[in-house]
Structures are given as C-alpha cells and as structure tokens.
Design goal:
Blueprint (H helix, E strand, L loop, with lengths): L35 H9 L1 H15 L20 H13 L1 H6 L1 E5 L2 E6 L9 E6 L26 E3 L7 H16 L8 E6 L7 H14 L6 E7 L1 E4 L2 E4 L2 E4 L1 E10 L13 H14 L11 H12 L5 H9 L4 H14 L1 H4 L5 E9 L9 E10 L5 H19 L2 E4 L2 E4 L6 E10 L10 H18 L11 E2 L2 E3 L15 E4 L17 E3 H19 L10
Parallel strand pairs: 3-5, 3-6, 6-18, 8-16, 9-17, 13-15
Antiparallel strand pairs: 1-2, 2-5, 4-19, 7-8, 10-12, 10-15, 11-12, 13-14
Helix pairs in contact: 1-14, 2-5, 5-14, 7-12, 8-9, 9-10, 13-14
Bound molecules: zinc ion.
The site of zinc ion has 5 residues, from loops.
C-alpha cells in the first residue's frame, strides 16, 4: 500500500480484532501511470468534459430498447438493428480502444479483452449493458427533452439510458482509452462484457458468461463489477454501498381446475372462492424476517453503529450484539420493520399476489382459475423452501375440499372428482452467493473508494478527520451478474456517482444523469484498474 504524501486518517479498526466494520487504509496506485493530474483532468477539465458529453450523448441517440420476449438476433434481426448501429458508433467513437482490445460478438452481446502480460493473474471483469428500457409512446410529450436526444443542459445529460446504464458502458470505454493514451499496458487481463437484454430476459449475458466460463473456467476472475448501488448518508456519515448480495426470485403459478356447471346450482365454493381462500391463507401467514450474520444489512448496520457517534445508544448496543444475542437481534429486526417497508423486505421474503384469472360467464361455474404469486426470497432462504411453504397452504385447502395437487408435474395428492391444483415454478432464481467483505479484494475496492472520494473528488468534505465508510449493501433486483456467479466470488454491483441530491428517474420519464457522476465513473475506474493491476493474486486471501 502506498500512502505517501497524504495527510490521511489511516486504517480504522483493522488493528482492533473486535471491529465489525474496519475501514481500510487508502489504496493508491504505485504505478508510474498514476498521476493526480490525470484524475484532476478527467474530473475538472472543460475540454475533457465536453468531449465526454458528446460521446455519451451520441450513444443515447441510438435507441437500443428491448421489450419482453424480444428473441435472439437470428430470430428477429430487424429488432436488433439499433444494436448494430451502436456497435458501429462505438467503433467510430473509440478507435484506440478498438485497436487495442479484442472484440467478440455473441448475437448483440459484446466481449472486449485487453490481454494482460501476465496470464497467471486472474482477469478483472467489468460489466454494463447496452440495452435500455423502452420509452412508452404516450409519455414522450411528458419529457422535458426528447428521450433519445442526449440533450446536455450544462449540468445533466437527458435521455433514456443516461443513468441505466449507457453512462457506465461509455465511461468504461473512456477509461480504457485514457489508459491507452498514456501507454499503459496491463499485466492483468481486463475484460469488458456488455449484455444486450439486461432489461428483458438477460439471455445475452447468459451467453457471454458461458463463453467466458468456457475460456477461463470457474472462479477465474479476480473480481466482477457491474452496475449497482452508489452512496447513502446516514447519521452524518457518507457510505459507499457496493451490493454484495441479491435476493432470490420465484413466480409461483397455481391453477385450480374444477368441474363446470350451471350457476343456478352451484357448490358452496366455486374454484374462485377456493383460490381466494388459498390467497387469504398465504397473506395471513407472511414470511418471518431473518437477520443472520451473512446478511449484508447487518453488515451495513454494524458499520453505522461503529462509525456514527450520533446513533441512538440502545440501538447501537443492540446492533453490535445482534449477531450473538437473540433479544438484541429481535430488537434490530423490529427497528428495521418499523423503519420502512423497503427495510423490512431487505431481511424478509416478500410475497405479492400479482395476477389472477378465472371465470368466463355469469351463468357458468368457473372451471379454471389461476393465480401468480411473486416471491423475492431472503438471502438466507431458497426457492424450494418457498415452494414448500406454498405447498403447505395448498395441502390445507386441498384437504378441506378434497382436491388433488400436482407440483411441477409430480402428483402430490391424487386429483379427485372435485378437481386439482396445478403448481408450477416460473423463473426460479436462488439468492446470489454473498460476496465476502473480509478479504483482500474488498479491501482494495474500499481503499480505492476512500482515496478517490476523500482525496480526489470531495477533499473539503473530509478535511476534519472525517472519512468515507464502505459498507455492504443488497439489491432487491437482479443485474446481469446473475449469469456470472460461477466466474468469481467477488461480485460487486456498484456505480460511482456524485453526491448531488436529485432523482435520476431511471426507467421513467425524464431519465437524466448529473455529468459529474459520469466523469467520476471514468476517473474511479482509471484508479481502480491501476490498483488491481499492481497487486498479486496470492495476497487475495481472507484476512
Ligand atoms: Zn441497468
């Protein structure tokens, strides 16, 4: 580590074996390619900024929208035509990049490889996606600036994809071009992987990940960074929050088939009534919250408790004991449940009855009813556990009405003359493996973030012995990384951003990005790539 020349706060908690949230030392590139001036230029030079605006804006003007059920390129080439345009645009805009990196296309997905000189070092994999959420035609009139204009008002760039996430894609390419310009040649291979349907099925990322796995094998990447969370302020401190976990997912689709008949001579309960009872049973028995040691939310709270002097004293005591003491754990759970629904569901499997269909006519008994219940599964649970829970409710109702149950094609209870439930799992996905926050890779990421934000971006904010805390976070949705789990244990979903208070309106009308954020992505990755290039893999052990 290199701290020379800085008046730094230094390591906090690393020398204290009881610390639950040690703050690592600054991590500064020792490479001769690293100069504060370069970072300053990226962040503050007007010429650089204007050129960068043009690059991002141009990419926004190519509407790479994807809808659900979009299909692969060989099935629908005309639908993917804009991706071809984007690829041409990238080649024209980043000639140095394309000269130095190997490009591979898998349908519309892209892999770029910047071969390092030391093939023993695990590659660093950086991700973004090329596609954007569609703009609803009816909403175009509501946009302050045309959704595909990439309009720059001197502060923000406007348009679909400016914050999710062509900003990241373009910034990564700009970073690499800046490194090429100073003749940097990586020791550690750098791979960029840009999916083409993250906002839809994610099939593109699946194919890209498969390719990388075939080529490099499992657990072959040093780390993976994809789009994700940024910063939050809590109790007067600023937290960088890379997401190290994602909840699981299941759509439980349950249909009930019963004999038909005339409405004038109905049974006491029609299939609609019976399914209503099932829903009632599920909603009256929600999942219990769970806050174990592995939950990154506990990790985040421990950081708040250790580093924020203004936190309520008894809450602090409970948080710091929550991993050891059941009463303290329960009190923290109650605190999170009261705080907000969003907090509650970071530690709880959610269930939402989202779709129901059934019945056809006023004089005919409904013969077929179906319901879809969406589950977002807590990191400690599995989709099979959730399916068991659903099955338990099905059995109760089936017993009462003498019905059969078929689950995923398997007969659990024989269908009777009264009918049967058919239960299928749609789109099941386990919770993501949790990225460790006690290893060298986390320390390098945290130490780089500290140095970059404390010294280069917001030095006045940190003048008085204040410091940035890097704490684990969890995403409630999934990014393309869901296809990359086997490639690395160290997956971070994090996008550098400015600390300006504004709404980026991602996925909605008036999506925009503060251009400071864009420049920070370029500069941060410049520093991070040099840091990662300067370390060896063998030191990447649990500390
Ligand atoms: Zn995205």
């Amino acid at each position: 580590m290199n701290n020379s020349g800085f008046n730094f706060v230094g390591t906090i908690g690393y020398d204290n074996p009881d610390s639950l949230c040690p703050v690592p030392d600054y991590f500064v590139p020792s490479s001769s390619f690293y100069k504060n001036d370069t970072i300053d230029l990226i962040l503050h030079d007007e010429n650089f900024r204007n050129n960068s605006v043009t690059k991002l804006s141009g990419s926004i003007q190519i509407p790479t929208e994807v809808y659900d059920e979009w299909g692969l390129i060989d099935e629908n080439p005309e639908k993917w035509a804009n991706f071809e345009k984007l690829h041409v645009y990238l080649e024209q805009t980043f000639p140095l990049f394309h000269k130095n990196l190997k490009k591979e296309k898998i349908y519309s997905g892209l892999i770029y490889t910047w071969e390092g000189s030391d093939s023993n070092l695990k590659p660093l994999l950086l991700m973004a996606h090329q596609d954007v959420v569609p703009v609803q035609i009816e909403t175009i009139k509501d946009w302050t600036h045309e959704p595909f204009s990439g309009y720059y008002d001197g502060e923000f760039v406007w348009g679909r994809g400016t914050s999710d996430c062509k900003n990241l894609l373009i910034a990564l390419m700009e970073t690499i071009e800046e490194l090429i310009k100073v003749d940097f040649a990586p020791k550690r291979t750098i791979i960029l992987s840009f999916g083409a349907d993250e906002e839809s099925a994610g099939r593109s990322a699946f194919l890209l990940a498969k390719k990388l796995e075939e080529r490099y094998g499992q657990n072959s990447m040093y780390a993976i960074i994809d789009e994700g969370t940024g910063f939050t302020e809590s109790n007067g401190k600023i937290f960088a929050m890379p997401a190290v976990a994602e909840k699981g997912y299941l759509d439980a689709v349950i249909s009930l088939t019963t004999p038909g008949g005339h409405s004038s001579i109905p049974p006491d309960h029609t299939s609609i009534g019976i399914v209503s009872e099932l829903i009632q049973l599920a909603e009256s028995n929600p999942f219990a919250p769970l806050l174990t040691n592995v939950n990154p939310i506990l990790g985040f709270l421990q950081c708040v408790a250790e580093h924020c002097p203004s936190i309520d004293k008894s809450l602090k005591k409970n948080i710091l004991k929550a991993h050891l003491d059941i009463d303290a754990n329960q009190k923290v759970i109650e605190y999170l449940e009261k705080k907000s629904l969003a907090s509650k569901y970071l530690i709880t499997t959610s269930q939402a009855v989202d779709v129901i269909q059934g019945g056809a006519k006023s004089n005919a008994l409904p013969e077929h009813v179906s319901v879809l219940i969406n589950y977002r599964i807590a990191v400690e649970s599995t989709y099979l556990e959730v399916a068991e829970n659903v099955t338990g409710h099905l059995k109760q109702v089936a017993d009462k009405y003498n019905l059969g149950i078929v689950r995923e094609g398997e007969e659990l209870l024989k269908p009777s003359g009264n009918g049967y439930f058919n239960f299928t799992y749609n789109d099941p996905l386990e919770a993501a493996p949790i990225t460790p926050t006690n290893d060298k890779a986390w320390e390098v990421l945290s130490g780089t973030l500290r140095h970059f934000y404390e010294k280069m971006v917001y030095p006045t904010r940190f003048e008085n012995d204040d410091y940035l805390i890097v704490a684990p976070a969890m995403s409630t949705g999934n990014t393309d990384t869901k296809s990359y789990w086997k490639l690395s244990d160290n997956i971070y979903r994090f996008t550098p951003e400015s600390w300006k208070e504004y709404d980026s309106h991602a996925h909605s009308v008036d999506e925009k990005i503060d251009f400071e954020s864009h420049l920070q992505i370029i500069a941060f990755f410049y520093e991070y790539i040099l840091n990662v290039d300067g370390i060896k893999d063998e030191v990447n052990v649990v500390i």
